[in-house]
Inverse folding.
């Protein structure tokens, strides 16, 4: 495996969506259809697209663990739920499964924490201690390719308190570092436009604080 | 600026390239045409596309400094050259501007170190200490959008020994953290297919080491 030769691949026809459409409608999708599995061929397209992202010195350090086994996802979902609430306990002192107001930005993330166990697929992203600069472009390609295939995704992390059990669940070696996890599924909601700060305010020209010409 | 309201944007027509073509032909482009500037309208498209990437809790922490002023790029290029060779000195004990064999993977990066001063545009990526998970998906969107516009790019970093001078050059506040820089220019070479490890070897199914069904 590790001595495989690098290969070139043609762009898959399935990724015919325009780049603009894919990027400008990449919503975080947390409400996943639990009853619609993702075809292995589509998972391969996502992995191939992910592999095309740049990495420092082209070392390609990312290793993806794709989980489609329902029992394993159910076990992982319990750990994800625990981890999500442990993060909120750390940050805000919240109790597990406490009520979250309908207008809170945490409402949908908390729903995902409860529903992760039913996700049709989950991708866990690892490396042997690569820096983020060589990992997250790859993850973004994965999620853009998912969008291109009509599959929803969201970039999530875990809490340190569950990592040993996650690693045990998937037989991950101790010298491997976890980066993030990406649940995948066909959306119960819709893709659509996202709202962002205007780049006239987040971008400078030639000197810090100097506005761009737009 | 910081109190600007988030806005929605339609996908720009200029990003009509297919997602697959953009991702599967995103080469690192280091030989840039110094005589062909990049239109401000195209820079805006790249920044808007970058802004569409996901960030943790949608905090949108990335601030981009776009440099098109030729004198500033020339000054930055000197610092980049010094930084690039400082990294090689740290890693291999190399002398600045020493000969690099034609078949070395460092040949083109060293060429860029010498030519950065003539790049038509350079984007410096900053945040107030955001983690890589909230920065590099944004950078990847920027580079994919550049590809979609026919503009070459490559993700590069600096060496700590030049950071104070870089920050001085662009009046960057001391509480802001540098992440990476992305030179932009029309390629002297061509876009084209890239070679990567086959995902049959970098991807596992359901358990570490278990091969995927492809």
């Amino acid at each position: 495996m590790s001595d495989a030769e690098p290969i070139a691949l043609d762009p898959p026809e399935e990724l015919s969506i325009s780049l603009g459409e894919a990027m400008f409608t990449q919503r975080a999708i947390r409400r996943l259809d639990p009853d619609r599995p993702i075809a292995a061929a589509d998972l391969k397209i996502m992995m191939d697209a992910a592999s095309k992202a740049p990495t420092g010195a082209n070392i390609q350090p990312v290793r993806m663990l794709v989980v489609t086994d329902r029992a394993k996802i159910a076990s992982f979902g319990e750990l994800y739920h625990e981890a999500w609430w442990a993060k909120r306990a750390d940050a805000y002192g919240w109790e597990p499964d406490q009520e979250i107001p309908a207008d809170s930005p945490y409402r949908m993330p908390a729903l995902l924490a409860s529903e992760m166990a039913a996700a049709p697929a989950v991708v866990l992203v690892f490396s042997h201690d690569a820096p983020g600069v060589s990992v997250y472009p790859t993850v973004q390609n994965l999620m853009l390719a998912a969008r291109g295939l009509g599959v929803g995704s969201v970039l999530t992390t875990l809490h340190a308190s569950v990592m040993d059990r996650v690693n045990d669940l998937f037989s991950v070696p101790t010298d491997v570092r976890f980066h993030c996890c990406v649940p995948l599924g066909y959306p119960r909601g819709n893709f659509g436009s996202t709202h962002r700060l205007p780049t006239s305010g987040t971008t400078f020209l030639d000197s810090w604080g100097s506005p761009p010409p737009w």
Q: What stands out?
A: Chain B touches chain A through 96 residues (CB under 8 Å). The first strand of chain B starts at residue 7 and ends at 8. The mean pLDDT of chain B is 96.
